[in-house]
Amino acid sequence: xxxxxxxxxxxxxxxxxxxxxxxxxxxxxxxxxxxxxxxxxxxxxxxxxxxxxxxxxxxxxxxxxxxxxxxxxxxxxxxxxxxxxxxxxxxxxxxxxxxxxxxxxxxxxxxxxxxxxxxxxxxxxxxxxxxxxxxxxxxxxxxxxxxxxxxxxxxxxxxxxxxxxxxxxxxxxxxxxxxxxxxxxxxxxxxxxxxxxxxxxxxxxxxxxxxxxxxxxxxxxxxxxxxxxxxxxxxxxxxxxxxxxxxxxxxxxxxxxxxxxxxxxxxxxxxxxxxxxxxxxxxxxxxxxxxxxxxxxxxxxxx
Length: 303
Known about the structure:
By secondary structure, this protein is mainly β. Helix content is 5%, strand content 47%. The longest helix is centred in the N-terminal third of the chain and has 7 residues, at 8-14.
């Protein structure tokens, strides 16, 4: 196996299993009422903490975690997996880094530093340049706004001129058992009676093929456990409940959502602009006049 590049930003392009140093650089903290959020611009503009009073909701980094396995990171300009790393546009192939063979995994913006544009006590905005390995130049912006009721996040993908297909979304790891930030750093597995439950009413499930990617056929949703992509006719909504602690309502105008629950200590509920490999199969072409904009609102309530 080829040795990993000493630069972690480059090594994770080689392999999703590459060592990752975790959160680094300056931290941006937002607070409003009982809610608080922390973002690390140099850690792929990742949301590393979202708390309600003293209850941390996100899985924390520890030394054996990879770049894909903690907090909530943006996925741009593709979401999930791209088969063989091949991007096919107008009959022309471009190749993305296959870092989780045989797939290019989760976009490119979370394994690179972002630039901070503006920060207040309750808002923050960051930007990222789309360059190599993405074939077309462009820009991504991510905005966070925290109120006493909710955290709202928005991703905007813009082209410098040439139209190109793009997808965007978030990959949050929600802890299955909440606790303080320090408690969650130990990746606890607790009492089943206190385990996170996830409820939603999708209109369909994407049929998975032999490699797990959607075949394009829509089938009926199934109950927990999940490692599935779901679709909604209009907008998505999901309720996450930590018994006797917190209930969080996730909403988004987006119509695709991936839910992943096999891990012992955390689960993913991912709002996305399209399904995995959708940058090929459900192409949304952006132009200078029509950028891609996706937003999500996370509204928690202490129980």
